Amino acid sequence: KFCDIVPDASARVHGAVWDITGADEKLLDVYEGYPKQYTKVKVSVRLGSGETVEAMTYVMVDGALEFPAEEYTATVIKGYNDHGIPHEQYVDAAVEVARSMVQES
Fold first, then answer.
1. Taking residues 25-49, what's their average pLDDT?
2. CA dihedral in degrees (51, 55, 61, 65; nearest 10)?
3. Beta bridge partners of 60
4. Which of 58, 84, 88, 95 allows an S-S link to 38, with CB 3.0 to 4.6 Å?
């Protein structure tokens, strides 16, 4: 799966946390293909300060496998770059895994 969070106790997900409005969430729902492509889940996030907060994230729906458009991938990479998170280890690797999964199906 691409742009997804997969449970793994030995791993961590790097990202950014925003405060959003209800209107923002509705726009994100459309952008993320909610509820067909992604569903929403609550997660505990440990911030760089050490504080833990509850957050909402999108997680792919089981069986929803679609290789992401280049535009979507570029947006994800821009977000990583904007927040100083190296994308090579995370996004580039995910693209390769997604590409191989789509080719196998």
1. 93
2. -60
3. 38
4. 58
User: How far apart, in whole angstroms, are the C-alpha atoms of residue 17 and residue 20?
Assistant: 9
Residue 40 class from Cβ within 10 Å (0-12 exposed, 13-18 middle, 19+ buried)? middle
Contact between 76 and 3 (Cβ < 8 Å): yes
Contact 59, 4 (CB under 8 A): yes
Decide: 61 and 33 in contact? Cβ < 8 Å.
Answer: no
Percent of the chain with pLDDT over 90: 41
pLDDT tens per residue, range 52-87: 999 999 998 887 766 667 888 888 889 999 999 888
pTM: 0.77
